[in-house]
Amino acid sequence: MKFTDDQIADIGEEIIGVLKTVYDPEIPVDIYELGLIYDVQISDEADVKIIMTLTTPNCPVAETLPQEVKDKVKAVENVNEVDLELTFEPSWNKDMMSEEAKFELGML
C-alpha cells in the first residue's frame, strides 16, 4: 500500500513523538533532543530507516537502546518495516543537542 505525502508526514511526526519517549540512561534527556537520531527516512510504503548513534561506542545500552528504538517505531500505526543503522560517523558531541536539551542540563 502506498501512502500520500501527508500520511507520510503524519507517520514521521508520530515516529518523532515515539523517539522522544526513549531516554539515554546516563543523561536525563530523550535521544531525539540529544541529537542521537541522525536521520529518519520513510518510504511511500511506510518502510522506515533510522540512522542513529550513541553518546559513546561503549555506551552501556549499546545493545538495548537501538532495539528499544526499533521496537517502539515498529509499533507506530501504519509503519511497515524498520531498518536501524547504528553509526559513529560523525561521532556525537554536545553541539548536536537541541537548545532544550542544553537548557535541561544547565549548559545554557
TrEMBL record:
Domain MIP18 family-like: start-end pairs: 13-83
Domain of life: Bacteria
Protein's recorded name: SUF system Fe-S cluster assembly protein
Annotated organism of origin: Chryseobacterium terrae
